[in-house]
Amino acid sequence: MRKILLTILTILLSVVLSLAQATSGRLIGTVNGPDGVLSNANISVKDNKTGKELTVISKEDGSFIFPQLEFGTYTVTIS
């Protein structure tokens, strides 16, 4: 009986640990210029490995977010 409980506990712990692993991240920032924050700026991120590119527009306070980026190296461009 003890062996069965230990096996079940091990399986449950493995499931919990596997769910805790993330496969993506996010990029958060604020666009600033010489005159202060830049609203409505185009911010692009390009995955250096895949070439996939995403673009967002900064908010009124200059903030932006890319909520779901795969792990990797990116080039950020602001225009």
Question: What's the topology here?
Answer:
Elements: H1 2-19, E1 24-30, E2 32-33, E3 36-37, E4 42-47, E5 53-57, E6 63-70, E7 74-78
Antiparallel strand pairs: 1-6, 2-3, 4-5, 4-7
Order of helices and strands: HEEEEEEE
Q: From the helix content, strand content and strand pairing, which structural class follows?
A: alpha+beta
Q: What's the Cα radius of gyration?
A: 21 Å
Give the helix level as a range of percent: 10-25%
Treating each run of at least 4 consecutive H or I residues as one helix, how many helices? 1
What proportion of the residues form beta strands (DSSP E)? 35-45%
Low-confidence stretches: none
The separation of the N and C termini measures 65 Å
Major β-sheet annotation: 3 strands, antiparallel
Mean pLDDT: 83
Number of strands: 7
Choose one word for the global shape.
elongated
Can you give me a brief rundown of this structure?
It is elongated, with a radius of gyration of 21 Å.
